[in-house]
Design a protein that fits this description.
145 residues, alpha+beta, CBS-domain, three-stranded mixed β-sheet, 6 helices, 5 strands, elongated
Length: 145
């Protein structure tokens, strides 16, 4: 299965935030949409960074709640690992595991943002594949080939 198939099923909507927005605004957006990461972008197309729950926890642990009015641009992860729509989900999962990241923006050949895939999305798609294989094997066994 390819990343594009995940986007086809879940949609390509991505919640973005401006680098000038406050950490408090990011927290409110993540809470409102029940998501674990925001793509930082001024125009919702070009990726400038990513801000995740893990970034927030680190900030609060290191700097305390006084960080909430400061800007996302100060704290976002600037080196963002991305994937393409033709990437295989198995490769995507390996990359996420190796790099210890939970969210990957999906970009076109021109590097414009077309979606966001979480580790949960990848696991869900893989479980769907495994269920399909299981049903095919049961059918094969019960019908005798």
């Amino acid at each position: 299965m390819k990343v594009s198939q995940i986007l086809d099923s879940k949609g390509g909507a991505v919640v973005t935030i401006s680098p000038e927005a406050s950490v408090r605004q990011a927290v409110n957006l993540m809470h409102e949409y029940r998501i674990g990461a925001l793509v930082v972008s001024t125009d919702a197309q070009r990726i400038e960074g990513i801000f995740s729950e893990r970034d927030l926890v680190t900030l609060i642990a290191e700097l305390g709640p006084d960080v909430l009015p400061r800007t996302i641009g100060e704290f976002m992860t600037k080196r963002v690992t991305c994937t393409g729509p033709d990437e295989l989900v198995d490769d995507l999962m390996a990359q996420m595991t190796d790099r210890r990241i939970r969210h990957l923006p999906v970009v076109n050949d021109d590097h414009s943002l077309i979606g966001l895939v979480s580790i949960g999305d990848a696991v869900k798609s893989r479980l769907g594949e495994l269920e399909g294989e299981r049903e095919a094997l049961i059918g094969y066994i019960t019908t005798g080939g």
